[in-house]
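README: folding subset

This subset contains proteins for which both the sequence and a predicted structure token string are available. Records are stored as plain text. Below is the entry for Sulfatase-like hydrolase/transferase (540 residues), shown exactly as it appears on disk.
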Amino acid sequence: MPDRRLPAGLRAPRWWALLTLGLALGFAAVTVTPLPGAMMPPIVVAWLGLALVLRWGAPRPAAPPVRVWPWSLLPLALWGVYVYLADSFGVVDLGAVFFHLQAGIEEHGGGGRLIAAGLYSLAMLPVLAAFTWLVRTDRRWRLVERVLALALLATNPLLFGLGQRGAALVTEDGAWLDRRYVPPAIRQAPAEPPNLLVLYLESLERTYADRERFGDAYAPLAELGRRGVVVEGMRQLDNTGWTMAGMIASQCGTPLMPAGLLHDSQFEPLERVVPGVDCLGDLLAARGYRLSYLGGASTRFAGKGRFYADHGFHRVRGRETLAPRLDDPDYLNSWGLYDDSLYDFALGEIRALEARGDPWAVVTLSLGTHPPAGFPARTCRDRQGAFDGVDILYAVECAARLARGLIERLAAEGLLEDTLVVLASDHLSMRVSAWEALTEGPRANTFMLLGNGLAPRRLEREASTLDVLPTVLEAMGFAIERHRAGLGVSLLADEPTLVERHGLEAINARLREETALQRRLWEGLGHLPRPEPRALNPAP
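--- output ---
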């Protein structure tokens, strides 16, 4: 029975259906475009106003509903998937989706994402029901609905990306990047090569250094930067925008192009990660370095453990091995260890390596600023006050302060006297509470070098994380071929980077067509023919 307490207009399904569709349209618009959230109400009002003027759902002459199923239901559902991904991550990277499906997503800490996915799925049901009602009720919508279905399919970025990857199989030149790839190699080493400490700061991009937008959240890192080399303009290329891709880009000098059909067992996790190229760990292990990786999250997630074990690292530790060693076994977040715990373990690891007398390299990966809100450590809460569970700037300040604290503790113990320290964000942040401020202008990754006799300075270069590998090698005193390794160029040299020569958009366009570099990365995983041999030093 209809509710007689409501006005007659609201008892009819028409305005409930139109309001549901308007809310869905408004939310999608502010999620997948740069429009601010405040634009959602005007979009809903404009939709309802147009519906009122055109009498959507109540045409003249009125006719009984026709029981049809709209062609647009599946395209609408696919758009719902894209909006969910955009709302969760900000920038939707198909490469990340494909890679994680193949590398393995067990022991992830994103339980909240799964809950959100379920809620999104439930929210799509009234949207699909409302659209079905509108098409059945209004003949005008039935006439245009098939065209709308095609438009929804053609404009969905998910399907557009799949189409581009398919087109890469028949492109005239699928080896543009591969021709510019220089196999990483050390030509000459100093008599006493330095140790290396790399601190990957999860999603802690340099964009936060803008005090007008973000206050003093980045200040602890900015203070560190005054002691070393700070690189500005570290842009993010496609296929480098998630953790494994960011680490591979900076350690191997190449974007992480997912294995795709090159994977020899499509329904099993990858057994090796980029086995076809040499990376930082391979080069240092061949020079007698002892290498250790410590991360707060599980090494089983996304193939991290396999990557480090396969590329020269002697000890690979993550949540599964570090958590049992905590003094407080309950001091964990959904992903793993808090940064203060991780850095305590890193300090112990460096002490042990230093005692051996061999050159060492330690790589850590923090969790403190993992989207959407970060995981501020207990020690920061004692200093910064209560955390509201939303403000990413609170987590940024905490993570920056703890990273600086580790470096100061190591320096106080004399453990950095012959050591190059690298601080770098693994990738740009995904959607967080400061998203609108982050995306209102150009963004850049954190990259700074401390110690080993480097004179403090700022380098204003248009670069990418591909340039990290050759820069680190030269900062350590190693001589490399023409200042290059992989697709990167040392930022300590005068050679132009790939980004300076060609620009981000041109490189990203080439990435969507590239097949030869993909085969190089995953050589041995499939049975496709290998790319033709290339000259050692092609022009960048």
